[in-house]
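Customer escalation, tier 2.

The customer says the design service returned an amino acid string that "doesn't look like it belongs to this structure." They asked us to rerun it and document both sides in this ticket. The original structure tokens are below, unchanged.
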């Protein structure tokens, strides 16, 4: 539903530019904020997110400490 509105407002090139900008922005977000999980088991990934957010949605430890297999001070 967004394409016809964007097409009318910005033209064909503008509509595709906006979609491209959204795609690039999404890619930058994924690269910057989503941790790499290749080569890790589901249990390791689950432990990472549980330790990072302590199961309640509140971030408690730096995100790099669990991925590097070193135990953060909060979990010792």
């Amino acid at each position: 539903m967004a394409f016809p509105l964007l097409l009318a407002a910005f033209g064909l090139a503008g509509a595709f530019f906006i979609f491209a900008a959204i795609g690039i922005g999404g890619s930058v977000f994924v690269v910057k904020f989503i941790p790499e999980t290749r080569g890790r088991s589901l249990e390791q990934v689950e432990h990472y997110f549980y330790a990072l957010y302590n199961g309640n949605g509140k971030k408690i430890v730096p995100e790099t400490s669990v991925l590097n297999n070193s135990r953060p001070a909060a979990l010792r």
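Tier 2 assessment: The sequence is consistent with the input. The radius of gyration is 19 Å. The chain has a mean pLDDT of 81. Sent an explanation to the customer and offered a walkthrough call.
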